[in-house]
Design brief:
This protein is mainly α. The N and C termini lie far apart (about 65 Å).
Length: about 45
């Protein structure tokens, strides 16, 4: 690897890991941490 490629590959790895962590947290929130059924009686209706 040349002097120029090493920092660029490190930055790309960092960006990929950051995006993976963001998508993972988003999926965790969406599938696990969301409250129950949308048709539940706890929803406030106008």
């Amino acid at each position: 690897m040349t002097q120029q490629e090493k920092p660029a590959s490190g930055m790309m790895l960092f960006v990929v890991l950051l995006l993976t962590a963001a998508f993972g947290l988003g999926a965790l929130y969406f599938f696990v941490l969301t409250p129950g059924d949308p048709d539940s009686n706890t929803m406030q209706r106008p």
